[in-house]
Amino acid sequence: MAKSNDYNADQITVLEGLDPVRKRPGMYIGSTDSRGLHECLREIIDNSVDESFAGIATEVKVIIHADGSAEIRDNGRGIPTDMHKSGVSALELTMTKLHAGGKFGGGAYKVSGGLHGVGASVVNALSSYFRVVVLRNSKAFYQEYKRGVPVKKVTEASIKQLEDWGITAKGSGTITTFMPDKEIFKDLVFEKTKIKALLRDRAYLIAKLFFNFKDERDGDEMNFYFEGGIKSLVAHSNRGKNILSDVIYVENKDENNHCEVAIQYTDAFNENVKGFVNGIYTTDGGTHVTGFRTALTRSIMDYVKKQSNGKDEIILTGDDLKEGLSAVVYVKMPSETLQFESQTKAKLNNPEIQSFVAVTVKEGLDQYFEEHPQDVRHIIDKVTLAAKARLAARAAKDAVLRKGALDGASLPGKLADCQSRDATVSELYIVEGDSAGGSAKQGRDRKFQAILPLGGKILNTERAHLDKIVKFEEIKDLIIALGAGIGESLNYEKVRYHRVIIMTDADVDGEHIKTLLLTFFYRHMPEIIHKGYLYIALPPLYKISMGKESVYVYNDEEKETYMKTVVKEKKFTISRYKGLGEMNPTQLWETTMDPATRTLKQVTVENNEEASNMFTMLMGEEVPPRKKFIQTHAKLATLDV
């Protein structure tokens, strides 16, 4: 018998067909969380969008059925169902084999959102049920699959089947229905807000393509159809903001590539730049976005230098140009030349497109700046102010954050640090008030839990420059405790805790402090969130005592359920915790800090644009949008996280 550490041919596993997808789904859809689930939907939707690029499809319909399955319909050409030279139908080949489809040099698509032979087959593999109905020449053919395996060969659908499926065999097109496999995605469900955002972006990008979305779970229905293109998309993203210029639009094309860029500056502090390739949103940017940034910096710097007439001008950096910038960079290119970093198409890697976009933007901006001096003046004033604030922040930071402090030699006096120096196991509790801070310090596990009490509400950092932020005592202590620096010196590798836990009272003031902290992290240390380091603690709201027995419950609904199902006729007393400071150290440990019994909620960002708009609306200077939001959602408000 071979030893366990032997390595020979018998230990080599060959995964056939779609087995690799089910074995390692994250390699194909990025993850098996909500993002991966919606990536599956995007893959199928973009196949239909590609039919529009081919000049055929004029409408795409997306339906979320009551059972949680998704259906995508288009009026394109329909996937071929005739026999392929491999011995199976073209439809089955496309849906069950990786790297099989009409976008691999076969001439069916010049421009597409990716290689749909990969995308559709991957979704098929990760679905407990998958059905494709193809309409061609007034006939309907279909094939059903289970976890990527065909249930039977391609078959002509009967009239009764089509009626049951709500399909009329007229015209041409493809109707794909799939149920995400719970073995892969657990209890995740499709979220209509994400689907609407996806369809809205596609509708802006592809003129005159009609999208219909229907959610049968609640009857919600919405249509998307725009003719203004990416100029309208940028204007839409800046609704409710004070704009500093009209939307600047530049375009260029050659025999292979087509580039469109829309740019607008607002008086906001945050940036919103989105890159698209053949209709695909590249969440991590890529060479097209890099080319845009390079050209934007050069154009503005050249203009500033020209206007200074040899006088000393302020040196601008790329970060200065980001403040208030909204832009969409959209390129279309032959599908066979596309180079993405992964199957999820999050980042474009084509090097040749960088220079193509850079030349397009540089020439377009130079011309616009010459023709619109008033607009460019507003932009220059904006980025110059950002540069001055950056220099002031550097000076202020040097004054209040000594090098020793950043290196951990002079930690804040109010910080009760943990013994561990291993950031991966260390936790920092940001606690509201000295009273709760005292209980937390006594009740914690000193080996890995650090406590930083806050004296009250911190500065609203939504519209604050760094020079003001680093002078605010409570935030300064937090920055020093985290150890990663701030602004230009920010280095996330130096973060001293990989769990940063916000622990506030379950009242209005506690919620406000929590929101202020979330604003600070989102605007000034966003990678703390993106790396998964930020959490919110869930302290109990009630203590139900029955003799010597006590139970903690975390919200009103849980209390009512417990009272009905457990307490019944027993004598009991209910104590409501108004604040964390009312708990003794033992209670705080048992309910909120003990890793074995506590409940933490991880802070994540699903949609950066929506999150940014929410912070702008809630924490910005404009009162009417915030007032409208509060009036609309007041009845839905809850103190539960």
TrEMBL record:
It is an enzyme of class 5 (isomerase). Its EC number is 5.6.2.2. InterPro entries: DNA_gyrase_B_C (IPR002288), HATPase_C_sf (IPR036890), HATPase_dom (IPR003594), Ribosomal_Su5_D2-typ_SF (IPR020568), Ribsml_uS5_D2-typ_fold_subgr (IPR014721), Topo_IIA (IPR001241), Topo_IIA-like_dom_sf (IPR013760), Topo_IIA_B (IPR000565). This is DNA topoisomerase (ATP-hydrolyzing). It catalyses: ATP-dependent breakage, passage and rejoining of double-stranded DNA. Keywords: ATP-binding, DNA-binding, Isomerase, Magnesium, Metal-binding, Nucleotide-binding, Topoisomerase. It comes from Candidatus Woesebacteria bacterium GW2011_GWA2_33_28. It holds the Pfam family DNA_gyraseB_C.
